Each structure stands twice: as structure tokens, then as C-alpha cells.
Amino acid sequence: MTSLRQGVDREKTKFEERYSRQILFQRIGAEGQRRLAAGKVGIVGCGATGSALAQLLARAGVGKLRIIDRDYVETSNLQRQSLFDEMDAAESLPKAIAAARKIASFNSEIQVEARVEDVVPRNIEVLLEGMDVILDGTDNFETRYLVNDYAVKVSLPWVYAAAVGSYGVTLNVLPGKTACLACVFPDTPRGMVETCETSGILNTAVNLVASVAATEAMKLLVGGDALGRLRQTLWSFDVWSNEQAEIAAGKPRAGCRTCRDRDFVHLAGEARPHITMCGRNSVQIHERARPIDFAEMQRRLESLGVVRHNEFVLKFWREPYEMTLFPDGRAIIKGTTDTGVARSLYARYVGS
Asked: What does pTM read for this prediction?
């Protein structure tokens, strides 16, 4: 009994030592730190913003992180995606896997689930089940509206965040209490929309918006008085021009399709395409579940081009295209934005 008590005391001392500077912050304290340790956060997307969010919350001691991402690490990511290194890019590791490994190297005491999947209507409930908060690390409004539908339907708080160029923006969504994403942006932005691929991005803008969003998530997990300090505005800041703006988001908007009518069109997904644009002069192809045997696929393709694989992805190069194939049959084809060309290449090399 004495040895058991001593073991518990040692673990308590270790916990308090690791998070001592955060516990000293009175608005968190010892009880708030325990609540963080019991918290469960789903991070949708682990690119620039998502990797910064994951790192901040892991170091803060959030007990469980579920990192969901469909992509793999490339050299061009390393300028701003803080959880990855050159070896990850050389191996084309899926971002969720690379992030989980890196987090384990600096905080092995928390639980990190890596899910190498694209968040779509058919799997979003499974991927985000059991989470306390959802954080936005995505790069497209299609997925954000899907997350918004799910969060409003199950009354789960989520934090919208985005960064491009030198500009970052974030919004807290507390279903039933504050405006949701569809209240603020009733329709998908039309016309030219800036992206990292077209307008570039500063890592400082990423880290700023991730810091703000991660802090709001911590307030939600700590609860109590912290909830009264949650921001209820659409907040933006440009780190280059120093321009700042805040727009009151307020209560759910009368007539909002999602909040008021509870018409979850994105969650229903009837019109959602199976082929989606991925950026980087690429097309992503979603297929029905069709397990891929990488060893067999390599034997089939090695006479047609350069091919290599690890346990997570298979890469195939046949100029001017590059195909990245995942175990569930999903593929990212680089070198075209023509979905017809991408579909043809997939059928030729993987199967129809």
C-alpha cells in the first residue's frame, strides 16, 4: 500500500513539474490543468495551422488529441508546418503519422490518435465521436461547412481558423449560443479565393492565428470562469500591415439554414463530388473502400515508372504526373487539375 501511494505521489509530482509554469497562471491553476489533461480535442487537418495547433495543445497537456489529415509531408511544407522535418518529407509520411511521432518525442504522456483519412460525410461522425472540442486546420470551405453541420447537429463547440499571406482569421462557434459558420458566411465564397498556393503564406501569420485558436480551445476545456472570456467575434489580424478587425458574430442568425432550420446539407452530402481539388496542381480521388496491397501494386507499376512505398503511402512517378496512393484506395494525382485526366490515370494504373 505504501509503495502504491509513493508511486501515485511520484506521478503527481512529475505532472505538476511538467506543467508548473502553466499551473502558476491563476486562470488555469491546478484544477484547470487537470481538466486539460482530461480534455479530448479533434484537429481536422494537420497542415500549417493544424500542426501548430497540435503542438501547442500537446505541450499544454491536453490529454487526448485526434489528428485527422488526408495528405503527406512535402519539402514545401517545412517553411511553416512546425511538426515536420526533412526526413518526414523524404519518406512522404502522412502528416497525421508524422505529427503523432513528433509529439511523442516531447510529450509521451498524452494520447495522440493519427487518422490518415479525408473527412467526408460518411465518416465524420466516427472520426469526431467522443471529442470535447473540434479545431479547424483545414484549407477549404467545403470541409469547414461539413464540420459546422456536424458540430451544430451534436452541439459540439468548434473553432474556425485560417491563414493566408500575412493574414489570419478565427471564430468560435458555440452551437445554440453564438453564430455558426453558415450564419457568418451563408454561401461559399465565390470568385477568386486566395490560397497558400497562389498567394503564399508567412509562418508568423500561421502561428499567430493558431495561438489564438488554441487558447480559445483551452478556455473551453478549462470551463468555469474561462467560458465567460471566450471571444464572440470574427477576429482577424494582418501581421505585415498590422491591420486588425473584429466583427461581432452575435447570436445565431434568424433564417440560418444550419442553426435555425437544422438543414444539414453538407452532412447529407448528396451532391458532394468524389473527386475534389487538392491545390498544388493536384486532384484528389475518393474511391469506395478498396484495400490496396502496396507490394503487389509496386510489382505492377515498377516497369512503367518510378515507384516506392512504405507502410503508409505508395508513390508512383510517370512524367509529367505523380500519384500518391493510400491503403484505402484514395489517391492524390499531381501534375493536373483536370479531373477527367486524373480519373483516366487512376483507372489505368490502379483500376476502375
From this structure: 0.88
